[in-house]
Amino acid sequence: MSGKAPGAPADPRALWPVDPEGRPLPPKIQPGYYPGYSTLSQQEFWDEATRRQVVRRVETLPAIRFFQGDEVTLFEAVTARLLPQDDRAEARRVPIVPWIDERLFEGKGDGFRFEDMPPDREAYRLGLAGVAAAAHARHQQPFEQLAAADQDDILKQLHHGQAPSEHEAWRRMPAHKFFLLMLHDACKVYYAHPWAWDEIGFGGPAYPRGYMRLERGQREPWEVDERRYAWRPPPGAGSAESERVAGQEDLYGTSQGGTH
After folding, report:
1. Phi/psi at 18 (nearest 5 deg)?
2. How many Cβ atoms are within 10 Å of 254's Cβ, its own excluded?
3. Beta bridge partners of 259
4. Residue 92 near residue 29, CB atoms below 8 Å
5. CA pair distance 208, 10, nearest whole angstrom
6. Which of 94, 108, 109, 105 is closest to 186 using CA atoms?
């Protein structure tokens, strides 16, 4: 991932979180409320298979094999808005696209899909083409060259279940379900990474050591105290808003519209 979010203004500080007085908060090597905590410092307590799998997420980046050509830079720009990492120093940003690429290349999935959605590989090909078409129709530029606010507007339409432009993708699948597919994948990759575990104070794999202190919110010996600080999203950021995704009742309610 690039150190500067695609479509960012000339001053990258405009995308930084701010303190309660509105002053930009510089990126950190380790954001979050657990400074000094390191999940990887506990790897001697894991079995070899667990250690190998977790360390790989930090030391080895999968080669891009599924996404083609401009799809890579386009999807990097999309994930940079779905899950902004402007609070992280460039060297400690969690790579998102290579791990989703690996899943798609290997044909792995959750074992189900909604009946009105194509297979994930096809959904990504169609959906990213639809996003690219929307950027050109509205702004006559590639999505990755748009300002962050313009990128957010396109993604917000997907979130609301609205087709951002005339394109085959939105005749083949609901826009909001493609949005959720991307968001699910991005969050799954992010929170599988040890640097994200450090950010939230997650203790890492429990096997074989396990946990000792299961009551009254006591922390384990290897954990650190939470240290909160006040912050707000940057001015104008979509992350300051909270809206229900279109069709959420159908996705997570009693009627899912059919899965297979």
Report:
1. -125, 160
2. 6
3. 114
4. yes
5. 49
6. 94
Compute how many other C-beta atoms are within 10 angstroms of the C-beta atom of residue 105: 15
Q: Which amino acid, 18?
A: V
- Report the number of distinct structural domains present in the chain: 1
Residue 12 resides in a domain:
no
* Residue-range definition of the domain harbouring residue 68: 32-207+232-252
Cis status of the peptide bond prior to 208, with omega within 30 of 0: yes
The Cα-based distances of 35 to 90, 227, 229, 233, 257 in angstroms read: 18, 8, 11, 20, 44
- Tokens 């250690």 correspond to 51
Does 10 map to a domain? no
Dihedral Cα 29, 238, 154, 66, nearest 10 deg: 30
Domain membership of residue 6 (yes or no) is no
Q: What is the pLDDT of residues 22-72, one digit of tens each?
A: 999 999 999 999 998 999 998 988 999 999 999 999 999 999 999 999 999
pLDDT in tens, 154-196: 999 999 999 998 999 999 999 999 999 999 999 999 999 999 9
Give the integer Cα–Cα distance in Å for 2 and 114.
Answer: 33
pTM across the whole model: 0.87
- Backbone phi, then psi, for 232, in 5-degree steps? -135, 155
Looking at residue 218, the DSSP 8-state letter turns out to be P
Pick from 224, 228, 167: which is nearest to 201 by CA?
224
Q: Does the residue 224 lie in any domain?
A: no
